[in-house]
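Researcher: Before we compare anything, I want clean individual predictions. No alignment, no superposition, just each chain on its own. First chain goes here; please echo the sequence and then give the structure tokens.
Model: Echoing the first chain and its structure:
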Amino acid sequence: MPASKPQQPVQPEHYLDRILNPRSILIVGASKDPVKRGNRAIQSLVSDHYAGTIIPINPREKEILGFPCYPSIAEAPGELDLAVVCTAAHTVKAVIEECGRRKVKGAILLAAGFSEIGEQGRILEDEVVALARQHGVRLIGPNTNGMFSARLGCNAWGLPDIPRGPLGLLSNSANCVTSIVMQARTHGFMGISTMLSVGNQADIEFHEYLECLGEDPGVSAVMLYLEGFKDAAAFREVARRTTQKKPVVMYVAGRTSEGKRAAKSHSGSLAGAYAINRGALRQSGVTVVERLYHLYPVAEALSLFPPMRGRRVAVVSEGGGPLTVAADALVEQGLVLAQLSQETQARIHAVVPNATAIDNPVDAGGGTDPRAEYYGPIVRAILEDPAIDAVLIVGLLGGYADRFGEQAAPAEHAVCAELGAMMREHGKPVIVQSHYSDLKTQSLRILREAGVPFQRHVEVAVQCLACAADASAARARNAQPAVPAVVQGPAPAAMRTIEAALAAGRDLLETEARDLLQCYGIAMPEYRLLRSAGDAAAAAAHFGDRRLAMKVVSADILHKSEAQGVLLGLQGADALREGWARIAANAAAYRPGSRIEGMLVTPMAPHGTEFIIGVTDDPQHGPVMLFGLGGVFVEVIGDVVFRALPLAPADALDMVGSLRHASVLDGVRGAPPVDRAALADLLVRLSRIRELHPQIAEIDLNPVIAHAGGQAVVDARIVLHRNVPTQA
């Protein structure tokens, strides 16, 4: 007998699968009135050819729209997966009680009137959730427009003509879902597999939906519109796993203070600081877009592209204008117009001898009427160049038959089919910007069926490539094996310092902060603490002729500069004694009665590039780290990035390289290049300190000066929580 094939392990069904893809649906509050949701819910299920069982619930009706109607959930037949609750908020508790007794797996709560309206609604929402958990009923919403899933044709949303395809869509906003569905319908090539308006997330939260869609083989990418998390840490963990398998593309609302206020009033969500959200999500592999209309095209492109190996892009067109626009857009998005090899240029020159530009961008027009057949051999030559990671075609492709007559159609059709095959053969993304995109020409249909995305606007096509590069880099970064912590356990001296400060009801003095950092391998400039002006001579003798900085050390003065408690460039005992007197007088004027522990004296740091580094607590993401350009850069350009803690070494290196003006790190105006690895090590150590000492509320290092000899922490401040145990 032939050997039997080994059986493949069966993927266990996700616990939400029978709720998002129900085999039976109760319509609670079903109605014969075609205006009411209890009628429209049945209509939409019928219109989308729902493959499961529809069970209307209404004690006053025998049938609705041809379906037998039951007086209560208790009398409904068979196994029950999902209840669509179309009744008002005050009825929901009784409905959930019935669902629980009948072992209904899940319920969609369409009604508003819960936590989004205030305290009274929050109390009702909490009571409903408690009942649901008591009975094992999972809840979608409340305050939601519903759900759509294509697998069984479950349109529990009510929006008609939802295009079906492999994209998942999760949103705080039903209106934004409608916008994206219309975009998909207009584009016509990639539709929706599952979409949800998550409502108040009273029970099922974003991360649970994402996990379910991440495990669904019918979903190629997940789109999200976010106003706020209930459990940001859980979402980041699920997103890190999911993005190893498929793209997760998100628009985060609330970039401005006005946007944050609107988001909170709309859904009752807490919209966290945008920069923190963006950094923490990027860290988890999520692709964050800054325009809502980019959400769909980026998700589509990332579903179609092979992984992008780097940021080097070649641009091909038949004319100069689009090439210039594309070059500008690529640079603005942090992509690289890499130089083509001499061999590649020679191959292009053989195709178009009269071409005016063949080094990148490539002008395929050749100074004559463009010919579509040029694109095949040109793009193949570029894709075979190891210096190129992706190809962007801009201009007329897709419209040659419209522009030059039907005699151009066969060549264009052949090229469009060939581009998809070449993209897969070489494993490098190809995208087309076509002036004819809105016309959906036959050539563009052939192109898209071959697996190559196309867009109307250069900027959108470039955004797709930039996101592809970011997503591939994140996938590689998050796939790296865990490395041992740079510090294994809490330092006893650091614990004693924190315990003493907490017992005294204060934060750490700067001297204590410096000593604590040094306990964890962070190199700190040496210092002397002058307890009185009489210590000036000994300090001056110790430091010799070095120029010194003097700073007040006081638990009552948090911001030393505001109190004029800092003097720079002091030399010698007399200058230190005079400095003591000046700072003491300034401190007394700033805050009378302030306790002065002494004056910290330390050598002036060498000139270099200034950075600000900090750790703080975010209401959504918990402890987060800030890294940015310091000194005047903080005031002028605000170039800072955030990541959630704990921080892996790969996260820290990515953080250092993510500044908008990261070229500063390579040295400008004669400054030496910054040691990125040393900076990353500092970030990882600070992350570990916060992990080992949760009673630390804030760490503020500003500035940290990177110079030719390394880096110097010029000022250190550590603020403590008063209600966190000292044992890590």
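Researcher: Okay. Second chain, same rules.
Model: Second chain and its structure:
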Amino acid sequence: MNISALQLERAKYQPKVPKSLVGAVKLVLGEKTESVANQKEIKELFPNTYGMPLIKFEEGDVRKNRPAINVAVILSGGQAPGGHNVISGIYDGIKKIHPDSRLYGFLGGPEGLIEHKYIELTGEFIDEYRNTGGFDIIGSGRTKLEEEWQFNKGLEIAKDLDLTALVVIGGDDSNTNACVLSEYYADRNAGVQVIGCPKTIDGDLKNEMIEASFGFDTATKVYSELIGNIQRDANSAKKYWHFIKLMGRSASHIALECALKNQPNITLISEEVAYKKQTLADIVDYMAGIVAKRAENGDNFGVALIPEGVIEFIPEMKILIAELSDLLAEGSITEKEFKHLRKSHRITWVAEHISAESAKVFLSLPSGIANQLTLDRDPHGNVQVSLIETEKLLGEMVKIQLEKMKKSEKYIGKFGTQYHFFGYEGRCAAPSNFDADYCYSLGYTASVLVSDGKTGYMASVRNLTAPADEWIAGGVPITMMMNMEKRNGHLKPVIQKALVELDGAPFKYFASKRGEWAYTTKFVYPGPIQYFGPSEVCDQTTETLKLEKQ
């Protein structure tokens, strides 16, 4: 492996951990839990793993003698900075439990478990990946683990490798799969534990016990550096409006965090759009109004942040997308009929098979956007909103609105646009000090949960705005986060996504400032992630966490 100078120095970095993980660990059981919603249904579906207590780690007096254990790890879903440190934490944790413990990695995500593709992760091999970005140590994948034959194939290799436990590192869908898998193995006394770790740069896997999903800190710092560079360029050239789409299909945490870091002129928050029941026309009017007001001051430039999933939060669009999801559900008769149509006939055919209200909206969209809404779903049955060029849709609609305003002399400026989508740029960056520490602590926490025989838990590290040695490690039952949702036309148990809370401190602060940011140019230029230097520069948590913990 070719090593950069930065990577050489980062390899020397020893992640900071909570005091409870340094020596002997004592597990303290808390209150029994129940699911966040649909308690009756979730309890019936998960009788063996429902209602388990919260777990908190404390400093122990005597280290218990534990036998060697064999653990396997899966990286599931999209990449997020810090995944390699989770694996490093697991490895160091199980080796501390017993030096003969072994760690395996299934290759290419959940598919590796099913197809029995794996490698043993040795200390020498893992050392090359400590404090690095990406998931290239074993690769990732999006195969869903939800069918009995998959569980049984996984159990075959688990028996062959004499596995004590499987650790699934992933987001809400991946950890939903981990929850289902742990219940299946527990029900059959299979002897294989399943533990989850919370990963997603989108930030939508969070709750009281999971204060942040790993990778969110690093990704938003990467995006904010890029946004800052663009803001500096905009303020220098003074001739372009930059429409920037940011990752965040189901929630606007990334857009909100970047807004708090950068202070751009416009930021759309999907959850607010849904709450206010804003139409596409409402959003365009709002954006065009800011553009026009800035033009009055001679500022024919600006920056707008757009969550990639905002189109799903517009009520008229949400209804349309839901109808399209039912119409084009995988394996349905209508989906097969749709796929056999000529592409030139598909838009008309779809309009004839949905409600009149949705057909009106669907036919009003540019043909390119309409076609994008009918593309194949992702493995979880969702519209692939990252493929919908929402930033261009809004930019073009704002341009049309400004032309109308110009005719009535309500707009006197010039409107030039540049479009950007920041997504993959943030997924595999070298983790920030925060994510390096947090991820290592999550992995180490997972190893402790395994050694104590736990299953159906997600590793939890809290109190994240405090110094790392004051962080609180433990475990939270995954069933506690579950509710029932419609997926692919069927009700299924899934982890409830955490949306931006409009009555929460981060959004309230943003809302109090956005008017000022809109009409002035108070851009902030955060610059690149700092890995070396004073703690107040290098170890900062997100603006979101700071405001939540005030």
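Researcher: What stands out in the second chain?
Model: The two ends are 44 Å apart (CA to CA). Additionally, The domain at 66-215+431-478 is CATH 3.40.50.450 (Rossmann fold).
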